[in-house]
Design brief:
This protein is an alpha/beta fold. It is about 45% helix and about 15% strand. Bound molecules: uridine-5'-diphosphate-glucuronic acid.
Length: about 450
């Protein structure tokens, strides 16, 4: 059992704190947000993450997990301090490190014994060295400490599963002993542990996210070409994915990547490169292609229902992906904004994201379910691939709509089936032959094993 403090109990920090407690450590979660900490003490989880509430309650009940706003309390017995504060984008796309700096300064002024400071937040390459400088400069008297980078690879919606079953643990430090001690904390997870220097570990995180984002923009570019040439991108991705050098993941064409990580991290990496006089041409293209996804979707809606002025458009899903209530960089927001600018009335339904979305776009009219949403709509636009949208009574949806038009930004429906049901349907990069009709000779996704 080790004593661990986690600074910042947002998505990453709270999951990290709960999971380390669940592995048997004594963990203190610290945040400067008093409401958040007061809520957590009452057992209220500020985010929607599968299994998190139960894990926090169980470990708090077993006295392995507690929460505080006080640095002296949080650091009194700490052996490891994880920094998991937010690193939002600054004005030029660079990562804004004000929260990391505040955490480092507070650690420096309150630490009473030697510590290992572990950086979990995604931070620009070189930040580990800088954190060490900040701590050194703010210590009233020198107490030894080491800085280790341990980037997180958690996906929202499956963060606990990802923490407990990592593909790898990446550690970076200039102090091999400190890295070894952090490695020990991760041994129960039984994943390969890669130990490198600080900057390399920080770069592994950016390179991983940028590569995944590049795959998404790549398949979205292929989707555009498929549309022009009459091929089906879903099957193209399946065909590509069987090659073990390519693999099947992150090849779903759609509205592009959103969320709190990919947009921010690709931009930050490009910014880091440009600052050093490099031209991050691929990263620039990745971002341009991604930004264009929303515009292209509005074009599709326009192609099917004409002038948007006075039309009623319903958004199926609002969150940036399913199984989260996170609205950060959600494509739905940009789509709603563009629709409203073009004079459409926009309604929406999302299984969990409506409350958050309403605070960001109060003009959105929320419906209580998909059928209420469809009532009188000229078009429905699938923005998030929630499971419940895949099992709808589509005949009922069809009857409720003013015009039976579906633009499927996540390719969750079968174009041939939609055509059979009488919808005017457009997916992304798929299902249309040169005559503009759905391709129906082969069922989408059919694979014959030999
Ligand atoms: C991502 C990474 O997957 C995590 O490994 C990483 O730790 C995290 O960022 C982070 O840096 O904190 P996350 O943003 O939660 O996790 O979500 P993903 O499941 O990776 O999806 C990101 C975006 O890509 C979503 O908008 C999703 O809709 C989109 N996406 C994903 C596609 O458009 N196509 C795909 O094939 C896959």
């Amino acid at each position: 059992m080790k004593n661990i403090t986690v600074i910042g109990v947002g998505y990453v920090g709270l999951v990290t704190a709960a999971c380390f407690a669940d592995l048997g450590n004594r963990v203190v979660g610290l945040d400067i947000d008093e409401d958040r900490i007061a809520g957590l003490k009452r057992g209220e989880i500020p985010i929607y993450e599968s299994g998190l509430e139960e894990m926090v309650t169980r470990n708090a009940g077993a006295d392995r997990l507690s929460f505080t706003t006080s640095y002296p309390k949080a650091l009194r017995e700490a052996e490891f301090v994880f920094i998991a504060v937010g690193t939002p984008s600054g004005v030029d796309g660079e990562a804004d490190l004000k929260h990391v700096r505040a955490a480092a300064e507070s650690i420096a002024s309150t630490m009473v014994a030697p510590l290992i400071v572990v950086n979990k937040s995604t931070v620009p390459v070189g930040t580990g060295d800088w954190v060490a400088d900040v701590i050194r400069a703010h210590q009233p008297k020198p107490i030894p400490f080491s800085v280790v980078s341990c980037p997180e690879f958690l996906r929202e919606g499956s963060a606990i599963l990802d923490f407990m079953n990592p593909a790898r643990t990446v550690l970076g430090s200039l102090d091999p002993e400190a890295a070894e001690q952090v490695a020990q904390l991760h041994l129960p997870l039984r994943a390969p542990i890669i130990i490198s220097d600080l900057r390399t570990a920080e770069m592994i995180k950016y390179a991983s996210n940028a590569f995944l984002a590049a795959r998404i923009s790549f398949i979205n570019e292929i989707a555009n070409i498929c549309e022009a040439l009459g091929a089906d991108v879903k099957e193209v991705a399946t065909g590509m994915g069987y090659d073990p050098r390519i693999g099947p993941h992150f090849l779903e064409a759609g509205l592009g990547y959103g969320g709190s990580c990919f947009p921010k991290d690709v931009m930050a990496l490009a910014h880091m490169a440009a600052e050093k006089g490099r031209h991050p041409q691929l990263l620039q293209a990745v971002m341009l292609i991604n930004d264009d996804r929303r515009r292209l979707l509005i074009e599709k809606v326009g192609e099917l229902i004409g002038d948007l002025e006075g039309k009623v458009v319903g958004l199926l899903g609002l969150t940036y992906k399913p199984n989260t209530d996170d609205m950060r960089e959600a494509p739905s927001l940009e789509i709603a904004r563009r629709l409203v600018e073009n004079g459409a009335q926009v309604r929406a339904y999302d299984p969990v994201g409506m409350m958050r979305a309403a605070t960001i776009m109060p003009e959105l009219i929320m419906a209580e379910d998909v059928y209420a949403l469809a009532e009188g709509c000229d078009a429905l636009v699938v923005c998030t691939e929630w499971n419940e949208f895949m099992h709808l009574d589509m005949e009922r949806v069809h009857k409720a709509m003013r015009q039976p038009v579906i633009v499927d930004g996540r390719n969750i429906y079968d174009p041939v089936e939609m055509a059979r049901l009488g919808f005017h349907y457009r997916g992304i990069g798929r299902g249309y032959g040169p005559d503009g009709q759905p391709i129906e000779e082969v069922q989408p996704g059919e694979v014959r094993e030999q």
